[in-house]
Amino acid sequence: MEIGDRHHPVPTLASVTVVRHGESEANVRYRRAVETGEVSVPEGRSEDAPLTGRGEEQAAALGRWLAAVEDGPELVVCSPYARARRTWEIAAGEYGERAAPPVVVEERVRDRENGVFALHSPPAWRAADPQEWARRERSEEWTYRPPGGESLADVALRVRGLLGDLDAVAAGRRVLVVAHDAVALAVAYVLEGLGAPVPDRPQVANASVSRWHNAGGRLVPGVWNSTGHL
Questions:
Q1: CA-to-CA distance for 207 and 62, rounded, in angstroms?
Q2: Does residue 1 register a pLDDT over 60?
Q3: Per residue in 92-121, is it b (16+ CB within 10 Å) or e — as a string?
Q4: For residue 154, what are the contacts with CB-CB under 8 A and spacing of at least 6?
Q5: Number of H helices and number of E strands within the chain?
Q6: What are phi and psi of 107, to 5 degrees?
Q7: Which of 39, 95, 138, 186 has the greatest number of CB atoms lying within 10 Å of its CB?
């Protein structure tokens, strides 16, 4: 292997497409908190955050696009979180009389877990535990693990296992993953192969599409963070 090459196990999947869920109420609260410095933490669980009206519109636009493309998904793998499941529910409804592809709800494409700081915006996190926030600021984002939570590297580990399983059970099929921005980053990292650099990418947009297709036994990137269908 020459220097600079990547080692890629030969994939059997025809393509992998990753979609982030539509805009959620948690996304709106997070942006507002960053802008205003609000430090309150909402009750409930991150897993249950619903879509906004805009998020539902994004999901419908996504569904219309998926139903129209010739090489649409043959299998859907969906995060168990409410915002992802609702995104696919709305998107699948846009197939009309055509049957939408089958869906599997898969725990390994859940969002990155923030442990004791779940639902905390940066201002709320800083106010709740200044020392831990300072440790986060000093750490590499890829490897930082909040108390009781996950690093992005942890997310990549579970995503790597899932992609291996999909290769075994969905050979030759086009797979759509409906999940979260951390999962999209993890898929990009895993598909780069052995020795891949840590991703340095902007946040993945709501309802965006990122896609890799099989070319000569390797899943290569096609589009990243595309929102043209919206």
A1: 7
A2: no
A3: bebbeeeebbebebbebbbbbbbeebbbbb
A4: 112, 145
A5: 7, 6
A6: -60, -30
A7: 186
Give the tens place of pLDDT for each residue, 129-186. Answer: 999 999 999 999 999 999 999 999 999 999 999 999 999 999 999 999 999 999 999 9
pTM more than 0.90: yes
CA angle 24, 107, 45 (to 5 degrees): 40
The two structure tokens encoding residue 225: 């963070």
* Cα 133 from Cα 123, distance rounded (Å): 10
The model's pLDDT over 128-142, given as tens digits with 9 standing for 90+, comes to: 999 999 999 999 999
> How does strand 75-78 pair with strand 103-105?
parallel
Please answer whether residues 207 and 20 qualify as being in contact, where contact means their C-beta atoms are separated by less than 8 angstroms: yes
Look at residue 97 and give its three-state secondary structure.
coil
Burial state string for 167-176 with b = 16 or more CB within 10 A and e = fewer than 16: beebeeebbb
Give the per-residue pLDDT at 8: 55
CA atoms within 13 A of residue 53's CA, in its CB half-sphere: 0
Q: What pLDDT does 120 receive?
A: 96
